[in-house]
Amino acid sequence: GENVEQHPSTLSVQEGDSAVIKCTYSDSASNYFPWYKQELGKRPQLIIDIRSNVGEKKDQRIAVTLNKTAKHFSLHITETQPEDSAVYFCAASSRGGSNYKLTFGKGTLLTVNP
Amino acid sequence: SAVISQKPSRDICQRGTSLTIQCQVDSQVTMMFWYRQQPGQSLTLIATANQGSEATYESGFVIDKFPISRPNLTFSTLTVSNMSPEDSSIYLCSVKGGQETQYFGPGTRLLVL
């Protein structure tokens, strides 16, 4: 089955700096890669996703890049703000139809210091 | 995105008892999922609940321990049976929206004494 590795497990940045979180996946058939943000005590929220036919996607301060050859994808947050502090999870979907499921990375605790 | 609610939001239970968690969605969805998230950990898929068929369980999870019902396209239940303290966790339901996007319910915080 799919295996998703996520690094780093913790990341501390100063407000205004950029943050980068990286994930690798094992199944070359994976074709959908979402990122979730989970604030303390809250549900995971989808913040951005990318499909395998696209190399990069951007939404305001958040961007995701995908390298299918190397089987890795990254989340980039620019101009970080204290409210970006949360746990971020990457995931990969390797199947479609009734066999669809997401495999999650172990998460990255991002702390943005004011 | 779908609006998902769960009941109860939290509970404290005695070991050996069972708890049924309900998940309600405001629109019809084909695929619903149940996850477990232990403190400080990632999301682990327990099973996929499909309407009209048996749930599909992931490795390490069995139907006798986590029976699931899916009576229609907007509702599902997960029962945690014969609970032990190791079952203390957050249980989240999730639904698959359009184009593979997946949305999560608010979760049920379970503490087993």
Structure description:
- The complex is a heterodimer of chains A (114) and B (113).
- Helices cover 0% and strands 55% of the residues of chain A.
- With 114 residues, chain A is mainly β.
- In chain A, strands 2, 4, 5, 9, 10 and 11 form a six-stranded mixed sheet that branches. A five-stranded antiparallel sheet of chain A has the order 1-3-8-7-6, with no helix packed on it.
- With 113 residues, chain B is mainly beta.
- In chain B, strands 2, 4, 5, 6, 9, 10 and 11 form a seven-stranded mixed sheet that branches.
Supply the key terms.
heterodimer; A: 114 residues; mainly beta; 0% helix; 55% strand; B: 113 residues; 7-stranded mixed sheet; globular
Principal-axes geometry of chain A comes out as globular
Which segments of chain A are poorly predicted (pLDDT under 50) over 5 or more consecutive residues?
A: none
Unreliable stretches of chain B: none
Biggest interface in this structure? A-B, 21 and 20 residues
Radius of gyration of chain A: 14 Å
The end-to-end span of chain B amounts to 36 Å
Q: Whole-Å distance between the termini of chain A?
A: 41 Å
Q: Name the overall outline of chain B.
A: globular
Provide mean pLDDT of chain B, rounded.
94
What is the count of DSSP helices of chain B, taking H or I runs of 4+ residues? 0
Number of strands of chain A: 11
Round the mean pLDDT of chain A to the nearest integer and report it: 94
Number of strands of chain B: 11
Determine the strand fraction of chain A and express it as a percent band: over 45%
Helix/strand-derived category of chain A reads mainly beta
Specify the biggest β-sheet of chain A.
Answer: 6 strands, mixed
Helix and strand run of chain B: EEEEEEEEEEE
Number of helices of chain A: 0
| Secondary structure category of chain B | mainly beta
